[in-house]
Design brief:
About 0% of the residues lie in helices and about 25% in strands. The chain is mostly beta strands and about 120 residues long. The chain has two domains: about 1-40, no CATH class; about 45-120, no CATH class. Strands 3-4-5 form a three-stranded antiparallel β-sheet, with no helix packed on it. The chain has a two-stranded antiparallel sheet with strand order 1-2. Strand 3 (about 50-55) and strand 4 form a beta hairpin. The chain is elongated and about 80 Å long.
């Protein structure tokens, strides 16, 4: 969600700088929107890990068992790619296309959880 939008889509991030004096290139239909004023939104994800070291003194004085849990994209937020393969709305005769705007891929992976045990002595 960009720029305080409550919609279910992301909008480009607004860039401020010397290349962006106007949001549009007036009189230029080939490049009407000044792309220097926008940047692609960065996909949001949260990675987290926890570990616990358990002393194993019955093996040796320095032995320990480490349990580790690693979670990637913990909140499982879906970051969709733009519908570039399906960006046409109408065919050449003006009829609406059934594939218009269909999103076929995501920018980040789904939630992944990895568990590990390590014994060191």
């Amino acid at each position: 969600m960009g720029e305080n939008s409550s919609g279910s889509y992301d909008v480009p991030d607004r860039v401020v700088g010397p290349a962006c004096t106007h949001l549009i290139n007036a009189g230029n239909p080939s490049h009407y929107i000044n792309l220097a004023c926008y940047s692609f939104p960065v996909p949001a994800k949260l990675d987290y890990s926890v570990n616990r070291n358990i002393p194993m003194r019955f093996i040796s004085e320095t032995a320990r068992l480490q349990f580790r849990a690693e979670m990637f994209n913990l909140v499982n937020r879906t970051n969709f790619e733009p519908p570039l393969p399906n960006n046409s709305l109408y065919n050449t005769k003006g009829a609406p296309l059934a594939t218009a705007g269909i999103i076929t891929s995501t920018a980040t992976t789904s939630r992944q959880i990895q568990l590990a045990l390590r014994l060191s002595w």
